[in-house]
Amino acid sequence: MAKHLRTYALFFHSLFIVPFAQAQVDQWDWAPRESLTSEQQSQLNQYCQGSYVSSWQATNATSTNLAADLIVRDKNGVIHLQGAAEVIQPQSTLSADSIEGIPNEYYRATGNVTLRSENQLIRSSNGYIANNDTAPTEFNQAKFLSHQSGARGEAALLSRRQDGVVFIEEGFFTTCEPNEESWKLYGSAIKLDTKSGFGTAKHVQIRIADLPVFYFPWLRFPLNNTRQTGFLFPSFGYSGTDGLSFSAPFYWNIAPNYDATITPQFIQEKGAGVDIEFRHLSPYGETIYEQSSFSDNDEGEQTLLKLTTAQSFNRYVSAGFLLEDNPTSDKYPEANSTSIGEKDHYQRSVYINVNSGNFLNKVTYLTYQTPDRAIDQPFEWLPRIDSSYRLATSLLDYRIDVQYTDFYDPAEDNFDGQRIALNQDVSLNFSNAWGSLTPGVLTQYRDYNLHDYTTDADHAASVGNLSGYLDSSLVLERRVDINKGVWRQTLEPRLNYLYVPYEDQDAIPDFDASHSTMTYSQAFSHKRFNGNDRIGDTEQVSFGLESRLYDENNNERWAFKAGQVFYLADRYVGISGDTDDNSAIDNAKRSDLLTSANYNGNRYSLTGNVNYNLDNDEVNLAQLVTTLEPVDDVKINLSYLYSINNIDPDDDAKQASIGSIFPLNQNWSMFTQYTYDFLREDASKEIAGFGYENCCIKVSLSYQHWLNDDNEFDRGVFLQFILRSLSTAGRASNAANIADSYWNQGKVGY
């Protein structure tokens, strides 16, 4: 198998690398990597083999100097230069076997013609150089180079107007190195406008490894980062279930402060559609409108809409809104290149912020569209008002948060109402270099005016709670000699005491309460629940031990954490059901043992979390994510997630994944990914592919088999080209994968 891989690698390698004779390389002012200075080499991408170096310099002279073996002026005033002819001007130098012309008007050069100027080189068999506006400069059988951008090409006829616009007839241009011409843009007529930053071409061929892969009757393409109207490169793919898919985005640069992208979509077995993105930039912020529409052969019209804006009027006041809509009754476009995804609830909201230092205020009006009426609709805010103030000194930390929410039940089949939530947290901080002691008091108050739709009755409810806490920590430190360097290790014991007395909350509804995921950080939190509806009673002591290891440059290499919560009393308040101080909803005496480890190294990183139940002798959570680079350019990603015994069984997970990228040679790499779901007892993602990269092109070809959002398996073969300084062509899978994360997004190579 290894033998065949080497054979295939050599075969593909020959497709992309076209050797040139040394003489041809030299004519481009090309300097190989080994001849460059250390500073010049450091600026090169690892795949680039050299750089263009121009030795030409502008002169300080203000007049034109002529040089040749023989110089003659005829009776008409035409100067003839024969043998090693040169015309040296302040901003350019023209050389050829012979030159004739009238200074300040024109020069006609023949044989080995070379024209040099700042960051520009032109070579040709013969040329006409105009020094006035009467005619353009022209070169026959020309080669041209821009040292700064790396763009070069050849043309049967190359002409340049006085305004700098370049015309290429029957020629090509590329940004590839002269010894690796991986892609070229051919055209019968190419126009390069460096001032406006774009080019146009007729009868265009994009050739990769000298093989035509695209044809366009007319094409507009960028020469720099300037935004220009024109077609972007298309995306295409093939899937076993959908057949051929194709999209061709069109970018419309309407004005300097607004533009649009229109993307037609086609899927052979599904139908066709169009995506629209419109962007507007005001002096205060950005507004974006998106629409995805698709005409499905079976389901008919499918549409999603989204309108967002965020405006900052000054440093105190900002505002914005979000409008999402699905007008086609729970149908979702099969092809969608916008940021609108398939959702159960589409949000419509507007907000305004008024902030002044540590005094923060926000008003939010929030509603939803729920296309599927069988799904419970979330509460809407009509509106919500948040205000907070914080006073922090070296000794005192005081914070007050006030929130008013008018909740509305769109179905009007349960309950809704208004809620006022008031939270005050005041603490004292006694700390020095070796530890801290922080006693604090937390006041929580809730007031409700509620309406019950089942009984058509109104009632009020309120609850208040005063809780206390004491946080403390020590910081112990020692020096460690490792690898002939002085490292630093810390040991940080933590102790937290929290007391939240029980309060009867039978009359308190649940608008937005949720359980907190038990982690090491949550063990030292002062609240049991998220949201403002439930005040979780508890009396507990949390112990923690942290240790960190810093290298001689004070970079954190290792971090270990272990902690546990010990409950001194049963808990009687839950999110749902009645609260009864005679009926505990949780009588566990201690939490899981909560552990965490992190390592950041030169060759690999590690993040691990384990929650272990000492009472039942079982692991409830095990998570491991590691990235390894054992040698240069070899990347291995490993992950494992085991999360069982969650409150919602749908949140249970047990799966492992391995992804890798490793080089086959200087330019070729292979990438793989495999994800196995132990609960499904099946692989949920399988990916294998090859990637090629040099200084001007990246190519990936992959086979992918994955579980999609509809819980069904899909598969496809995906080919994608990234042409440096031109564009991206092809298509990648919609499923997140190592090819997208590390290869196509440039995390390997440039």
TrEMBL record:
Signal sequence range: 1-23
Pfam families, per database record: LptD (PF04453)
Key word Transcription regulation present: no
Single biological process term from Gene Ontology: Gram-negative-bacterium-type cell outer membrane assembly
Locations listed in the record: Cell outer membrane
Keywords associated with the record: Cell outer membrane, Membrane, Signal
Domain LptD C-terminal per the UniProt entry, residue ranges: 343-668
Keyword DNA-binding in annotation: no
GO cellular component terms, semicolon-separated: cell outer membrane; transporter complex
Function description: Together with LptE, is involved in the assembly of lipopolysaccharide (LPS) at the surface of the outer membrane.
Family: Belongs to the LptD family.
Cross-referenced HAMAP family: LPS_assembly_LptD
Assembly notes: Component of the lipopolysaccharide transport and assembly complex. Interacts with LptE and LptA.
PANTHER family: LPS-ASSEMBLY PROTEIN, LPS-ASSEMBLY PROTEIN LPTD
Full protein name: LPS-assembly protein LptD
Organism for this UniProt entry: Marinomonas profundi
Encoding gene, per UniProt annotation: lptD
